[in-house]
Amino acid sequence: MRVYDIILKKREGYSLTKDEIYYFVNEYTKGNIPDYQAAALLMAIFFQKMNKEETAYLTEAMMYSGDVLDLSKIEGIKVDKHSTGGVGDTTTLVVAPLVASCNVPVAKMSGRGLGHTGGTIDKLESIQGFHVELSNEQFINNVNQFKIAVIGQSANLAPADKKLYALRDVTATVDNLSLIASSIMSKKLAAGSNAIVLDVKVGSGAFMKDLDSGIELAKEMVDIGHHMHRETIAILTSMEQPLGFAIGNSLEVEEAIQTLKNRGPEDLKELSITLASYMVFLAKEAPSIAEARTMVINHLESGKALSKFKEFVQAQGGDPAVVEDTNLLPKAAYTREVIALEDGYIQSIQTDNIGIAALILGAGRENKNSPIDLSAGIVMNKKIGDTVHKGDSIATLYTNKAEVLEQAGSIIRKAIHLSEGPVQKPRLIKAIVSKDHVQIM
């Protein structure tokens, strides 16, 4: 088999076979196919696209290119959650203990933040002593004993995806549904869970800017999940503004704790309940979504989910006292209010620019080796639809670099657009995509 023939075949618009796709992925991962030929094939895929079978085979090949977690020693149905990424996306910190408190095992492998998208691992490491480097045996034992554990991603998890994504990033071939879906799902499937709930973000702070493209991506990923015999459901959610109020690692941990105390922002609380309900349902701990939701809300309101979070933190070496005293989290040396210069109503927020402002303050990484300031970030004081008066604080900045406050404040002020008349708040849950049905909310 020659990679030249595979490139030519896809360039001419023909479908690739499973053997051809596996050959390409395996040989490229081993270093036997040069970047220039891999780039040529990616460009051919970009223009000619892939059908469902090709996309599934590509996902499979990338999944099996490295480690595949064996969670068979964990009791019960393992359900994973994946978000396509956004600004202030704190849901894992709330959803994982909520689901675990419902007797569903949460064996989660998470990543670090890159660019303006935050990482769950960084957020958890804001808690003094918390460590994410567990042995496989300890990881499994923690899930069996406490129903929850979160570890960092294995370096050898879907290595083909890492190589191909780096190449896509420099060859203008990122924006292809099959390549996006297979990249996301190869890592989720390699993480070993029995079922997957996908949180597909749509809006100015997300990769998918509109609902139609979000639904297309969701369908691709749901199809891949079912091809691999994993029950998969996608929930399309708003990223037209930051989720909750907090953006930044320790700030988001504090907000997550408040949410687990049933005192958090309404949008973060509602999305967390929704995601957790679908996970509990897929784990067959409730016979319907409605009954799963009732269980989840009961465990939030009773404090069971908060207790589970505390137990989880302690099990991974963190200081559980942070649950009662969030002042134990890292604190920034400098704060500044971003003040509104006129009256109006918040009409829209350029959410990705809010994320960039948080990055400048120190909350994110320019590249994977950049240092990160766990105390840095932003707390939004206004959301879309809110009334604003001249002189109101629209956001509070936190950093240990006083010299960047002016720049970050300017970016935030430009990212928030006002109107003279009232504005309707955006719908949080936009659609549900299952194997056979798309429900627009």
UniProtKB/TrEMBL annotation:
Keywords recorded for this protein, A-Z: Glycosyltransferase, Transferase
Presence of the UniProt keyword Hydrolase in the record: no
SUPFAM superfamilies in the record: Nucleoside phosphorylase/phosphoribosyltransferase catalytic domain (SSF52418), Nucleoside phosphorylase/phosphoribosyltransferase N-terminal domain (SSF47648), Pyrimidine nucleoside phosphorylase C-terminal domain (SSF54680)
GO function terms (MF aspect): 1,4-alpha-oligoglucan phosphorylase activity; deoxyuridine phosphorylase activity; thymidine phosphorylase activity; uridine phosphorylase activity
BP GO terms, sorted: pyrimidine nucleobase metabolic process; pyrimidine nucleoside metabolic process
Record keyword Transferase present: yes
Pyrimidine nucleoside phosphorylase C-terminal domain boundaries: 345-419
UniProt EC number: 2.4.2.2
Catalytic reaction annotation: 2'-deoxyuridine + phosphate = 2-deoxy-alpha-D-ribose 1-phosphate + uracil; uridine + phosphate = alpha-D-ribose 1-phosphate + uracil; thymidine + phosphate = 2-deoxy-alpha-D-ribose 1-phosphate + thymine
One Pfam family recorded for the sequence: Glycos_trans_3N
InterPro entries, per the entry: Glycosyl_Trfase_fam3, Glycosyl_Trfase_fam3_N_dom, Glycosyl_Trfase_fam3_N_dom_sf, Nuc_phospho_transferase, PYNP-like_C_sf, PYNP_C, Pyrmidine_PPas_bac/euk, Pyrmidine_PPase_CS
One Gene Ontology cellular component: cytosol
Function field: Catalyzes phosphorolysis of the pyrimidine nucleosides uridine, thymidine and 2'-deoxyuridine with the formation of the corresponding pyrimidine base and ribose-1-phosphate.
Complex and partners: Homodimer.
Family of the protein in this entry: Belongs to the thymidine/pyrimidine-nucleoside phosphorylase family.
NCBIfam families referenced in this protein's UniProt entry, alphabetically: PRK05820.1, PRK06078.1, Y_phosphoryl
Protein name: Pyrimidine-nucleoside phosphorylase
Organism: Thermotalea metallivorans
High-level lineage: Bacteria, Bacillati, Bacillota, Clostridia, Peptostreptococcales
Designated gene of the protein: pdp
